[in-house]
Amino acid sequence: MPDKKHLAITMGACTGCGGCAELQPEYIGWSEGDERPFLLTDLAPDDVIHELQAFCPEDCFDWD
Ligand code: SF4
């Protein structure tokens, strides 16, 4: 079983582009009214976290 880490979103710089929710819909939900992503789970595998970090243009994703 792959390692999982705690995933976190920092909303400060988020532009609401929606790309993260399209890229990882099992982990990232989308709030239509707010036009912001939210976490569906706070645990995610390394490769998912790295993909989100590489994708997000505003560096909103972090882990611990
Ligand atoms: S990819 Fe980044 S900037 Fe775009 S909606 Fe997701 S968190 Fe916000």
Structure in a nutshell:
By secondary structure, the chain is of the alpha+beta class.
Describe this structure as you would to a colleague.
With 64 residues, the chain is α+β, with helices and mostly antiparallel strands. The chain has 2 helices and 5 strands. The chain has one domain: 2-Layer Sandwich (Alpha-Beta Plaits), CATH 3.30.70. Strands 4-1-5 form a 3-stranded antiparallel β-sheet. The two termini are 19 Å apart. The mean pLDDT is 94. The structure holds iron/sulfur cluster.
Which small-molecule ligands are present, each listed once? iron/sulfur cluster
Would you report the number of β strands? 5
Largest sheet properties: 3 strands, antiparallel
Major beta sheet, strand line-up: 4-1-5
Helix segment count?
2
Our Rg estimate from Cα atoms comes to 11 Å
Shape: globular
CATH class: Alpha Beta
Using the coordinates shown, work out and report the CATH topology: Alpha-Beta Plaits
Indicate the percent of residues in helices. Answer: 10-25%
Low-confidence stretches: none
- Provide the residue-averaged pLDDT: 94
In terms of quaternary structure, the protein is: single chain
SSE pattern: EHEEEHE
CATH architecture: 2-Layer Sandwich
